[in-house]
Design a protein that fits this description.
The protein contains nine helices and eleven strands. The strands form two sheets. Strands 1, 2, 3, 4, 5, 6, 7, 10 and 11 form a nine-stranded mixed β-sheet that branches. Strands 8-9 form a two-stranded antiparallel sheet. Helix 6 crosses helix 7.
Length: 266
Amino acid sequence: MPDHPFIKKNAGVEVIAHRGGWRLWPENTLYAFQHAVDLGVDMLEMDIRSTKDDHIVVFHDETVTRTTNGNARVNDLTLAELKQLDAGYKWTADKGATFPFRGKGIVAPTLDEVFASFPHMRMTIEIKQKEPDIVEAFGNLIRRHGMQHRVLVACFDTGTLKRFRKQFPEVATSPGMTEGMIFYALCWLHLSAVYQPNVEVLQFPLKMGPINGSHPRLLSGASKNNIQVQIWTVDDESKMRMLIEKGVDGIITRRPDRLLKILGRE
């Protein structure tokens, strides 16, 4: 498989800000993304859903309860209603003693706003909902902003990813849950050449159940298939150093400041 334009070869370990680095700032907001860019991260990671009136917004949870001063499903709110909520309301670094981002005008952005604000950044974007289907609207938005070579699309649901790839084959993707598990098992059996998923990047957890995202067999199998490996979600400095030594291609972290410091890029 030839290199996709999204891939940067010989770039070293790339720093990927998980939801913009949400141990530092309110997650999935323009505020977080801008501060992550200012730090010098290589890539922004984010999640998307749709509002009641079919706008694609950057939001992780099914409901707004955990991160805002509201209490509703994202799909049940219009964009105008979502924009009335304070996306910095629940953020705290001291277990609730203080809430420094309340009342600062931080709101959930549309994906259109993110693309317009950071047209030169590479992004990994996870589709968080299966219904209603947002594949076509999402792909059209990528094309409209000319982001086909700057976006990596992820989704746990393999069916959603297959529909996306069929309609937007020029955009890079990572595997769905089923694809990833099959490839992992074959790597474990030294049979990675048997099954080559139609992906450019493997995104695996560092450790989840039987999965070890940094296992040498996985890294070797991916390399043989010209697939990069990014590991999520790693905030511990000792684990970051271990992954750097093992030669992973990217680390998805809520603390990009720590990883940049370890890499000598702070």
